[in-house]
Amino acid sequence: MTRWLLLFILGVIAILMVSPLILTVFTSLKPTTELVNPPWAPPVNLTFEHYVRVWTEGGFSRYFFNTLVISTVDAVVMIVIASLAAYAMVFMEFRFKLLLQILFLIGLMIPVTAIVLPLFQIVRGFGLLNTHLGVILADLALAVSVFVFMFSSYFVGVPKALHEAARIDGATEFQIYRRVVMPIATPAVVTTALLEFLWSWNDLLLRLLLMTRDEMRTLSVGLLNFQGTMTRDVTGLSSGTVIMAIPVVLLFLFFQRHFVRGMTAGAVK
Amino acid sequence: MAGVDLINLSKAYGDTEVLHDINLSIADGEFIVFVGPSGCGKSTLLRMIAGLEKVTGGDLMIGDARANDLSPRKRNIAMVFQSYALYPQMTVAENMGFSLSLERRPKDEIAKKVQEAAETLKLGPYLDRKPGQLSGGQRQRVAIGRAIVRQPQVFLLDEPLSNLDAALRSETRVEISELHQRMKTTMIYVTHDQVEAMTMADRIVVLNGGYIEQVGGPMELYNTPATEFVAGFIGSPKMNFIKGRFAEAVGAKTLGVRPEHFTIGSGDNSWEGRVTLVERLGHDTILYVKVPDAGVLTVSLNGQHQQQVGDIVHLRPKAEFIHKFNDSGRPIAA
Ligand SMILES: Nc1ncnc2c1ncn2[C@@H]1O[C@H](COP(=O)(O)OP(=O)(O)OP(=O)(O)O)[C@@H](O)[C@H]1O
Ligand SMILES: [Mg+2]
C-alpha cells in the first residue's frame, strides 16, 4: 500500500519536473501555424525548421561552440587546480595552511551577486572584457573553493598509509598525486567535471556581464535574443533551449553512476 | 646494506616527549625486534627510522650517513605496513614494481625482478590481480614483495602479522625468518607479541614508556632480565611475581619465578596451595595455584599431569632459576 502511495507521489513529482521540458520540445517541433493549439498538444506536422533557423540565422552554431569551449576548459582546469590544492591541504604540511583553509572557507560563503561589480572592474582592469579567458578565470575563481572542498573530503578518506608507502617507495609528492591518489579519485573527478561543466554551461550572469560582443556570446545569453520587450519568438526560444539542454542530458545519462557515487563519497568516508 | 645507529635519539610531539634518549647500534644484516606494550613508542621509533616522523632530538645514522633530515626516498629503506597499504588501482605486479618504475628502470628489468620476488613469495599466479581480489595472507605477501623488490639497505616491518590468523601467522613468521637468512639485509621488526620477538630476533629491544628497558639476545633476556618489566614481558606464560614473606625470606622485595621453574612435591621450603584452574595443552599442563601469602601462581608442567581443580599441591621453585628484584625493580646479584 505504502509502495503504491510512494510510486504515486514520485510519479506526480516526475511529471511536474518533466512537463516543462516536454512542452518545450513540443513547441520547438511545431510549425508556426500550430501555435494556436494549446501547448500540451503534440505537434501534428513535425518540423525541424526552427532548429535550422536558430542554428544558422540565430547564430547558435557560434554560441554553441563558445559555450562548449568555455565549459570544457572550465571543467578540465578546475579538476587540475582543485585536486592539486586539495592534495596539498590534506597530505602536506606547510606554513599558513590554516590561513589558506580559512580563505577557502570564506570563498565558499560569498555569493557571486554580491561581488559582481568589483569582479567586473577587475576583469576590465586586466583588459579581459569580451574574452573567453576573462570568463573562464572568473568562473574558476568563484567556484574553486567548492571543488577544493569536495576533493578534500574525498582525499581525507584515502588511507594515510598509502601516502606513506608511496613516499617510502621513493615517489615525490607530485608522483604520489598523479600515480597513487588521482587514479583512485575517479568519482571526485567525474563529479567535478560534471558540476563545473554544468554550472559554466548554464551560467548567465557572468556571460552577460563580461561579454557584450555578439561573436563571444554563449547559449544562455543567446536565448535572450528571442525575447524582446514586446515580442517573443516562442518556437525559436524553444528550439534554442532544447539545443542547449541536449549535451547536459547526454552527459548526465552517460556518467550517472559515477556521479551519484561521487556525491556520496565524502559522506560515508 | 647498512647498519643503523640511534644516538641519544628522542621524539616529542609538542611538549610531550614520547621517546627518551634512545641509544642503539644495529649491525649490518642484523634482525632486530622492537617489543613492548601498546603505546610504548615502537611504531614511532620505526617511523623515525623510515623518515615518516621527524627526529626531534639526537642523531639517526643509516650506514655512515646522518639521516635525520633525509626524506624517505633518499634513505633507501623499505617498509611493510600493518595495514599493507597496497595501491588499490594497481595490479600485484605494478604494486611490486612501483618503486623501480619511479626510478625509471627499464621495463624488462622491472618485470624480471618482480617475477623473482613473486616466485619467492609464491605470488606467481596472482600478478595480474588487484589487491582487492586477494586474501589477507596474499596481500601480506604482496606487501613484503613490494619491499624486497627494491633491495633496500634496511627493511622495516610494523606488526606485519597482526591481521593474520594464528596458523598463517606462524607460517609467515617462518617465511620472514628464511627471507632474512637469504637476503641478509638489516631488518627492524616491530611487534607486541613476545613469541614473534623470541623466535625471529637476533637481538630484542624491549621498550617501555618511551625508554629502552633492555637490549639483548632472546635467551639473554629470558635468563638475565635487566628489570622486573623485562622479566614479566619476556616468557610465556608470564613470570610469577611474589611479594611479602616468601620474597623477604630470600632477601628481595619481589621474587620472580617462571611458571616452568616450579617442581611439584613436598619437602622443606615447599609452598602449599590449592589448584583453582587447570589448562591441558597436551605437551604442557598449566596449573593455577592459589598459595596463601603469594596469590595465584601460574605453574607450567611439562607433559600431561593428573591434578584436578581443588587438589592441594606443594610447589618448589628451582633455586637456580629464581629472580630477585629490589625496590626499584632491578635484579639483585646472586
Ligand atoms: N601524532 C601524535 N601526536 C601525539 N602523540 C602521539 C602521536 N603519535 C603517537 N603519539 C604517542 O606516542 C606514543 C607512542 O605511540 P606508538 O604508536 O609509537 O606506540 P606503539 O608502541 O606502536 O603502540 P601499538 O603497539 O599500540 O602500536 C603513544 O603514547 C602515543 O599516544
Ligand atoms: Mg604501533
Structure description:
- The complex is a heterodimer of chains A (269) and B (334).
- Chain A has helices at 2-29, 49-56, 60-91, 97-109, 116-125, 132-155, 160-168, 173-181, 186-202, 205-210, 219-222, 234-265.
- Chain A is 71% helix and 0% strand.
- Chain A is mainly α and 269 residues long.
- Chain A has one domain: MetI-like fold (Orthogonal Bundle).
- The two termini of chain A are 35 Å apart.
- The relative contact order of chain A is 0.14.
- Chain A contains 12 helices and no strands.
- The longest helix of chain A has 32 residues, at 60-91.
- Chain B is an alpha+beta fold.
- Chain B has 2 domains: 4-231, P-loop containing nucleotide triphosphate hydrolases (Rossmann fold, 3-Layer(aba) Sandwich), CATH 3.40.50; 238-325, OB fold (Dihydrolipoamide Acetyltransferase, E2P) (Beta Barrel), CATH 2.40.50.
- In chain B, 28% of the residues lie in helices and 31% in strands.
- In chain B, helix 3 packs across helix 4 and helix 4 packs across helix 5.
- The chains are: A mainly alpha (269), B alpha+beta (334).
- Bound molecules: adenosine-5'-triphosphate and magnesium ion (MG).
Derived structural class of chain A: mainly alpha
The CATH class of chain A is Mainly Alpha
Give the CA-CA distance, first to last residue of chain A: 35 Å
Structural shape of chain B: globular
Which runs of chain B of at least 5 residues are low in confidence (pLDDT < 50)? none
Annotation field: number of helices of chain A:
12
Beta-strand residue percentage of chain A: under 5%
Structural class of chain B: alpha+beta
And the CATH topology of chain A? MetI-like fold
What is the CATH first-level class name of the largest domain in chain B?
Answer: Alpha Beta
Q: Which protein chains are joined by the largest interface, and how many residues does each one contribute?
A: A-B, 17 and 22 residues
The fourth-level CATH homologous superfamily of chain A is: MetI-like
CATH architecture of chain A: Orthogonal Bundle
Instruction: Provide the domain count of chain B.
Output: 2
Count of distinct structural domains of chain A: 1
The Rg value of chain B, from CA coordinates, equals 24 Å
